[in-house]
Amino acid sequence: MADRGTSIRIEGLTAGYGRGHILESISLAIEPGELVSLLGPSGCGKSTLLRVLAGLHQPTSGEILFAGQSVNRLPAEQRRTAMVFQRPLLFPWLSVAGNVGFGLKMRRVPVAQARQQVAEALRMVHLEGYADRRPTELSGGQAQRVALARALVTAPELLLLDEPFSALDENLREEMRQLVRQLQRQLHITTIFVTHDQTEAALLADRIGLLLGGRLAQFAPPRQFFTAPATPEVARFFGWQLIETPDGISALRPELVQVRHQTSPPVSASVQPLRGTLRSVADLGLRIRYAIELETGGVIEITCLETAADGQTPLQPPVRLDFPPSALVHFPAR
What CATH number did the domain enclosing 151 receive? Predict the structure, then answer.
């Protein structure tokens, strides 16, 4: 299977069901061969956007371009896309080979050529020897591999994955993540992966598109969400602790914070520390979670690897929060 991948551009896309809008003015550009993750809470429009790209749902307004050409009026079967859903949706009356080759049969690919392509697709997902099995004989992970092979065998220009691993246990999810990333790099296929799992998005994606309330809140490489969130809402979604200030909102990266006694020596390179009262402590095994009421108002939670950075245990109120400049981002009042 030759390398393939197309550029995707979405301009001012709005879509919904009935009179309500789920997606509002979405605009983004995806490079050929890029793996983009759409991330966000349930109901934010991730799956709707995939369906619009696949031609399964008509947008209210906006433009969708593949390799610079509008596909708005192109039916789904002509868009050169393939979609893998949360559940494999295999035909139980067909063998594994029959399921993988179904799309080729619909396209009337010659039998010998189709057989060769099916064998290659099964090899790619490490299911050699499974061609004659029935879906009922497969594990959940194997069934999802068959669904992935069925998508890849038609040589799509755009691969759409709609939370395909959410029904699997964590070990299988990690195995499938590695497989998808390996195949995506090997084939250089443009891929959009929907998930609600931040870790999964960061592990897989070249860039993440965070959808909040039907709008694209930020589109950037994974690291930027942990170092330079675009808004307080983005920061909150990615685990930053928000602190109200007189002139806006500050976001604090909790992993970079040291919780110390107020009498402890100051930490070099730390910005002006925050001070507060310890309200609760939760022992999480290898980590300790503190709930701290700040002198400036509000309660934040900080999880640390050790009980106290300065070795004085247990911590007692009042406490001080030390952190480097990179741990704090300020958003001026709007």
Answer: 3.40.50.300
Is residue 1, in this structure, part of any structural domain at all? no
Quick one: tokens of 209?
A: 């598109």
Put simply, whether the predicted model's pTM sits higher than 0.85 gets the answer: yes
Residue 311: pLDDT band by 50, 70, 90 thresholds?
Answer: very low
DSSP annotation of 114: H
d(CA 307, CA 283): 9
Please tell me whether residues 164 and 202 are part of one structural domain. Answer: yes
pLDDT tens by residue, 223-254: 999 999 999 999 999 999 999 888 889 999 99
Closest CA to 187 of 261, 133, 116, 125: 125
Contacts of 83 (CB under 8 A, 6+ apart): 50, 54, 56, 151, 159, 160, 161, 162
- For 314, the domain range is 241-332
The whole-angstrom separation of Cα 158 and Cα 78 is 12
Domain finish residue from 227, 255, 271: 227
Contacts of 169 (CB under 8 A, 6+ apart): none
Number of domain units in the chain:
2
